[in-house]
């Protein structure tokens, strides 16, 4: 089953152990464990430090990600490939194994694909962009995880 999603058993075992340890210490719900071990990730946000860090903290989801990159802190803003490289450094993964989730085509989606990400999920009500087999378009956040786990043809 893991192979259908491009996940090696070794990578899953490492993520599973990391997330299971947090769950067994009472730090996660079972649902957080299920989601987290399938999709370790980092957040890259354009903008200035103060409002972006506050927004990230207010989501209540920071415990589910490897970290947050605020582009002002690193001096490179999306779509610059160095912004995406900073997020990959947080996750310890490589661009060809990564997926981008974003709502801005030019900054998030095009930037990630140009940085070598193998696929992207664009959260948008618009469908006016050219078709790209690497990009799945969804209308709302609850559709993101199923889109990431969807088997590619």
Describe how the helices and strands are arranged:
Elements: H1 9-24, H2 30-38, E1 42-45, H3 49-58, E2 67-70, H4 71-74, H5 81-91, E3 99-102, H6 105-114, E4 119-123, E5 135-138, H7 144-149
Parallel strand pairs: 1-2, 3-4, 4-5
Describe the protein in words.
The longest helix is centred in the N-terminal third of the chain and has 16 residues, at 9-24. The protein has 2 domains: 1-38, no CATH class; 41-149, Rossmann fold (3-Layer(aba) Sandwich), CATH 3.40.50. The strands form 2 sheets. Strands 3-4-5 form a 3-stranded parallel sheet. A two-stranded parallel sheet has the order 1-2. Helix 1 packs antiparallel against helix 2 (30-38). It is globular. It has 7 helices and 5 strands, in the order H-H-E-H-E-H-H-E-H-E-E-H. Helix 3 links the parallel strand 1 (42-45) and strand 2 (67-70). The chain is of the alpha/beta class and 153 residues long.
Key descriptive features of the protein:
7 helices; 14% strand; globular; two-stranded parallel ribbon; 2 domains; alpha/beta
